[in-house]
Amino acid sequence: MADQNLENKVAVVTGAGRGIGKSIALTFARTGADLAICARSEKELVTVKQSAEALGRRCFAMSVDLSDSEQTCAFCEGVLGKFGTVDLIVNNAGAYFERGLFADSDPDLWWKTLEINVRAPYLITRLLIGSMNKGGKIINLTSGKGFSAGANSTAYHVSKAALNMLSEGLANELWQRDIDVNSLLPGPTATATFDNNADGFRRTAEEILASGKDELPPGLPPWERVKHPDEIATVALQLATYPSGGPTGQVFSLARRPL
Prior knowledge:
CATH superfamily: NAD(P)-binding Rossmann-like Domain
Oligomer: single chain
Order of helices and strands: EHEHEHEHEHEHHHE
């Protein structure tokens, strides 16, 4: 087991206002990392920022719509203005706007899914890798849907397949700089995206898990399990603290079924 210490490291985490991103950001902060975080909701970001600073960490937080390339670039400029260099990039933010059939999809929402799920990780990584320290780690949050065509939600499937390939390509390019790039596939996790609550109100991870403890959502095999976001953060921390020469270009999956 690697020494899980992130003292003197700077971690960039997108979509850090809630869910998996929040869990990863605060897990990194508890392990010593300073944070640069973004999300759409400023209110949620402020809460995470306050929690990180209460741990004695520095935290740069910025409300960003990652479908807007100018805002995304401004966030990266702010990160480098605050810290100068980065050690960890976690491309967690994602969108799942289109869940229906391709023929019925909204072209704007279909493409906006790719802007957030593919272009934003590209831009953030592209703008920050020049300032990454030796031994840096890039973790892209992907999905099992990136490995199967499915029969709907094509925008999400396409975007996650692209992000998986981005991880592999970057791993091949960056290993000589001692920068590892891996995909982290959470499987079903108790988040707002997974919940997709028809009533419109947002439930906590604990509420989601409690409501589904006796019956899995449709489409999942009986041996699958819905995870708490903190479980994903535990694996992210393991990836972030691997010593030099650790895995790169790999997919780490918490799903309990074949991809």
